[in-house]
Amino acid sequence: MTLDQLLETVPTYAKDLKLNLQTLVKQAELTEQQTWGTVVCSAIASRNGLLTRVLLAEAQPHLKPEALEAAKIAAAVMGMNNVYYRFKHMLTDEKYSTIPARLRMNAIRSHGIEAADFELWCVAVSAINNCHACVTSHEKVVREKGISEESIVASVRLASVIFALASVFDAEAALAAA
């Protein structure tokens, strides 16, 4: 199934999401790699199998293999980190902040693409996963690497639409199965 075919199945109540996705993959604030890497990591973070398969297939011609792999890495590592650091952020007992994470995160330094793009994808996934600590940390790095606020917002805007579409497809599948 192509992205256009999938978008034709979007129910009327979610038409804005369909139109937004079609527009947001063409945002001037993001490079092609930033756009399609955001698509990949956001689809994976949104956890809808159909949407993930279609979006990864759509993204493949737009990304070099190492960028595609790096976007997958961002989704995987941030999925783990977002749970862990969101947990630590929720607690008021300072003792927890002194306990080491002891989680392997080597891929954050060995992903093989521009660090700014990878960090941008980490922000998008962290926004989807609602991790304040990770959004704050990675946004700071992205800004230090020269990415503008407008580009950060463009990436998260795209992530938000992909997440919402995943929710719609999950809801429609649940309704169809009932």
Key structural traits:
single chain; 178 residues; mainly alpha; AhpD-like; 69% helix
Give the termini separation. Answer: 24 Å
Low confidence ranges: none
Residue share in β-strands: under 5%
Tell me, what is the CATH class?
A: Mainly Alpha
CATH homolog superfamily: AhpD-like
Overall average pLDDT = 96
The count of domains is 1
Order of helices and strands: HHHHHHHH
Helix content: 55-70%
Which fold does the CATH topology refer to?
Answer: AhpD-like
Number of strands: 0
Based on secondary structure, the structural category is: mainly alpha
Per CATH, the architecture is Up-down Bundle
| Biggest sheet character | none
State the helix count.
Answer: 8
**Shape label:** globular
Q: Measured on Cα atoms, how large is the radius of gyration?
A: 17 Å
Layout of helices and strands, plus pairs?
Elements: H1 3-7, H2 15-24, H3 32-46, H4 49-59, H5 65-90, H6 115-128, H7 132-144, H8 149-177
Helix pairs in contact: 2-8, 3-4, 3-5, 3-6, 3-8, 5-6, 6-7, 6-8
